[in-house]
Sequence to fold (72 residues):
Amino acid sequence: MTAMNQPKFDPDYVATLREVLDIAVEQIAMEHRTPATKAMMAQIIVQNAARGITDANALVHDAVRAGAHGAP
Fold:
């Protein structure tokens, strides 16, 4: 996603996405809870939200799946 076509999320939605990230991070193993993994998971959440996915469970699921083994 380039800077030109990045989605515009209102502050309340950004707060919701942060909560989704926090929930997702709590569901991965402690040894994978690194800043790099958290950033990767946040990217997955934002990309999915930008594609129109609004279901919090789906956003959490995809982020957990991405972060389950840590960042590469």
Remarks:
- The mean pLDDT is 92.
- Residues 11-26 form the longest helix (16 residues).
